[in-house]
Amino acid sequence: MIHLIGSASLDIKSNRMIAVRTFTYFLITSFFNTILGVILAVAIHPGSAAQKQDRTLVDPGKHLHGPQNTLLDNMFDLGRNIVPANILTPLFESVYEVQTVYVQIFRLNVNI
Asked: What is the DSSP track for 13-53?
């Protein structure tokens, strides 16, 4: 709130300079993060088949050849998964959490 009041007391030229600097900072940091993300993705290869084969129990000599997905197939899958199959179902569903509490009672046999 204080920044808003301080900004309101400045003239239009000063406000414009603050807005330009903020937008420039946003663009530079976004560009840097995009480049860094692409470099890391190329270097690490997340989700590559070689990494998945290392973690499976399948004999490395046997390769499972399934249907190959193209980039277009993957993009269509993303688009289809944004919208649920039945939009009205979540409106009427209720989620209940059931908690079970176990109480153990000790019986002490004390002879006096």
From this structure: HHHHHHHHHHHHHHHHHHHHHHHHHHHHHHHH-TT-HHHHH
